[in-house]
Write a structure and sequence with these properties.
11 strands, alpha+beta, 4-stranded antiparallel beta sheet
Amino acid sequence: MDGVSIDALKSTEGAIERVLGEIAEALRGRRYQPQAIRRVYIPKANGGQRPLGIQTVCDRIVQMAVLLVVEPIFEADFEETSYGFRPRCSARNALEAIRAGLKSGRRQVVDADLKACFDLIDHEKLLKCVEKRIADRSVIGLIRQWLGVEVIERDRDGKENRSRQRQGTPQGGVISPLLANIYLHWLDRSFRSKTGPGKWADAKIVRYADDFVILMRRHPEKVMEWLSQLLEGRMGLVINQQKTTIRNVQLGGESLDFLGYTFAWEGWSRKWGKCPWLSMKPSRKAQERFRSQMRELTQSRYRALPIAVLVERVNAYLRGWRQYFGQGHRGTVFNNMNSFVYGRMLRQMKGRSQRHLRPSADLTYYRFIYERLGVVRL
């Protein structure tokens, strides 16, 4: 909102030290006031839009300073079943926990979906959760200011609309993921309490931020009822009933999609023959998004782009996809994706007029694309 970027501070001699000094003095003198955030909307995979709050550099610095101090305090309390936006935790850990739970016989699964979780968190309830571990009123005051900061967004006509946050944590804020985990720790703690389904249903919960599944051997309907009473009755969140389902992940039964992967029991293995085994591979939606992104990166309008630049863009996406989806049984999916990439690059090259993009007689297009141009193979 103030028109100052990180690059602008770096390019000005002494600007970083000056800004840090001003922030420190404002905090010591209790004069610090967060500036308004600019709200923009980014597309979601399901076709909707996600609100994103862009903070000023100074506010991000202060939030990071607070995060570095308070995060270890709450990390000491967080459950091992929470994996999102935590140090030394990742989506890979969550996926391994689901695989272990299904293999242990917990094949009745509540696949839960919360509607706009970050936008519906109750400020007062959240602050009470924070106050259980933080007694410093200055820190509590800073968090309260960030929660109620002014939000500015432009409509289609370019007119600015200003509003104050009444609930929710601004997505895009440095400290927002921690605040969301603090609030949802209420769910984790209640789940494993004496009256929670972790005891009476022998269930396991795997949570990644506001996405979570519950795996159990019995009582899925009872677990759903407990979940609704806690989340909607006490925490003020909303369960998306259309997307929240009970799945029977058995041989010949249903599959489970979580964090871009599909879990399903298969009845045939080349190695073991007729022996049930649990497959874990990139989901159909993840594969569709891959193809859509590759079509975007290799559109015909990029034929004027230098081939080295185009290949680097494609490789950056391929490396990221390979790193995330490199778990489980990905061989067949990777081969299919490689064939798709080859087809797109072949079409891109044949649509260009440069002779140097034609392989010699002793070199196939396949080798030319992967060996000469250096396109990454999954």
